[in-house]
């Protein structure tokens, strides 16, 4: 399956990327593997090291970046986020299609890296900025300053997604209803990544 395109799922913080990826991993765990990103931010309640993120220090991550160990990385709201080559290789070594959960800065880096095969890029949009703000505030984990930073970043990400008539992404999906958005993600994947019908239909039977 190494010849099948990796999948990049991008979108602003609070749009529901993580939830959609979790559903995908549960239903198709024999097909997809999640590339666990590194971050220097503190864990949120319920987050586990090595599961949701590889939590690390800024000094450690800066050192590994200088050593060329990351495919992409970005400074987002004062914290580093990045995808290590080792995390992607781990998924590929398991014979699964790699899913990356990154922001638009990461998308630019992955495109510049010219990965082979070329990844499929999916962008998840909120139905509106007002609803995105509600979701961010509903977390109860962000200060007002952080909420405003995330909203400013979201506007920039949405502008990038809309550039050139949406040509920066293979598929742009509005998450106005979780189940509807999830079905749209599955349809886009089935159409674009080249998974054979018999493999797709196996789902979790052989997981």
TrEMBL record:
Residues 4-190 form the Guanylate kinase-like domain. It holds the Pfam family Guanylate_kin. It catalyses: GMP + ATP = GDP + ADP. Its EC number is 2.7.4.8. GO terms for cellular component: cytosol. It is an enzyme of class 2 (transferase). SUPFAM superfamilies: P-loop containing nucleoside triphosphate hydrolases. Belongs to the guanylate kinase family. This is Guanylate kinase 1. The lineage of its organism: Eukaryota, Viridiplantae, Chlorophyta, Pyramimonadophyceae, Pyramimonadales.
